[in-house]
Amino acid sequence: MDASSSPPLTAPSTVAVELAGITKRFPGVVANHDIHLSVRKGTVHALVGENGAGKSTLMKILYGMQKPDEGTIAVDGEQVSFSSPADAITRGIGMVHQHFMLADNLTVLENVVLGSEKLHGIGAGARRKIKEISDRYGLGVRPDALVEDLGVADRQRVEILKVLFRGARTLILDEPTAVLVPQEVAALFANLRELKAEGLSVIFISHKLGEVLSVADEITVIRRGTTVGTAVPAETTPRQLAEMMVGSELPTPETAESTVTDQPVITVENLTVHASGGASLGPEAEPVGPGSLVEAAGEVKKVLDDVSFTIHAGEVMGIAGVEGNGQTELIDALIGTKNADSGTIAFLGEDITPWPTRKRRESGVGYIPEDRHRQGLLLEAPLWENRILGHVTEAPNAKGFWLNPKGAQDDTRRIVEEYDVRTPGIDVTAASLSGGNQQKLIVGREMSHNPKFLIAAHPTRGVDVGAQAQIWDRIREARREGLAVLLISADLDELIGLSDTLRVIYDGRLVADADPATVTPEELGSAMTGAASGHLEHVEEEAAPEDEAR
Ligand SMILES: Nc1ncnc2c1ncn2[C@@H]1O[C@H](COP(=O)(O)OP(=O)(O)OP(=O)(O)O)[C@@H](O)[C@H]1O
């Protein structure tokens, strides 16, 4: 469509948003090349494509965060030009980012009106409007709830409500299900149906093809910056969609044979961390968990409570849990960015509890962090310097006492090649890579050091199905060689498929064990949200956890 030559429509159009001929170039990369996207009113339109295909760039253009080099945007048949998100919001475009942007210490009401009106003396009108929107779309949001008390799914609903409050008619949801358990995904999809029923449109970005096929009315596939086709969910299988996207079949995380040995690699005993305790030694998020950090009695809450387990050589131990139930603190304690208040950590028979992070890393602890931007990368540094991060003293980054830039650069080229990191070179900044490609770089770096113990937090978050298969293969290969893995993932298929043993964390405690061979994602989801499940073996309150960990 050439919107510049077509007059504004007079009759009400069925098209909410039309992007035509969008081209966007970055140095060395054409991120979008003549892309077309037409989103009808009252539909969920999925946007899928491999890592670096150009999805985020296209959405940043629609949301006014970036200017296209060529092409036009029309909203309700009228051509528009956005210089900022504020412009896009004015025209009814809203975006819910993958990383929520809510202020924890404020209420829902305050968060929703933040930025759109003065906080001082919020009128009854705002409260009424929130209630009205919440009721109309079945969001179930309580205006006076404190955001820090809300779980992930509720926070997401607040984000959705926030954009609706500002008058959004088209909502962009960037990988909204990445952090949700299956039951929460079903609830989100119910909310999306309510939005559709009111004539609103949703642009849904996801790498989870099964979900895309179940929620979308239409699908646009982009590949290497161009639109390669559209698909109708009723007539498409996940396999066909995967082929359109990345030219390969759908991978499965399933691990064929067991490689678990009886050689303990990591043994954690009675690990406890308090909310205010555990001196922080490095960059990590504030401790979060369900409920207040300070309990009613004035006692400091345990964010990790008497946790014990052993992982053996050749074993992947998965931990399932809704975000904020102690996973961050467990990872911090294991990698050494936070001290335990009590308990011990032994690595290959040696007590490493007092060891600093660097010593743990040098001894063979690999680390794929939860938050790649804050913990995994120096965003403004080139790729090859990111290759060195966390491994300053190790080959090929170092020769004796000296840094070896050439070694790091050569090895970065190898990782780029081997892990298919889509980049014009190793001198570009990590910030300029797409999210999935950043993840591939981190995984490549960590696996390159042949760790003996790997802390893998969401190792395939944001990566496409092709890269996912590759990362799973690497983890499986290393596991065959004796790697012990602690796998934390919100992707329950990944968790069930890759794990040899599975445990559920809730409110800082390991509360249940599950058999990966028989448990379903739904059962696991119930256990994660605290509901009882007949299929899981619940850990008795009084039972000595170390007995069952062995
Ligand atoms: N600010 C930037 N500077 C330079 N290159 C960029 C910038 N933003 C994006 N790119 C490049 O544009 C291409 C498209 O990236 P984009 O983030 O849009 O992909 P994506 O489809 O969203 O990928 P993913 O699924 O990994 O999130 C990539 O090659 C990326 O490296």
Automatic annotation (TrEMBL):
SMART domains in UniProt? AAA
Region feature Disordered, mapped onto this chain: 526-550
- Protein's UniProt keywords contain Repeat: yes
Provide the alphabetized UniProt keywords. Answer: ATP-binding, Nucleotide-binding, Repeat, Transport
Domain ABC transporter: start-end pairs: 17-249, 288-532
Q: Which GO terms describe its molecular function?
A: ATP binding
Which SUPFAM superfamilies did the record assign? P-loop containing nucleoside triphosphate hydrolases
| Protein's name in the database | ABC transporter ATP-binding protein
Taxonomy of the source species: Bacteria, Bacillati, Actinomycetota, Actinomycetes, Kitasatosporales
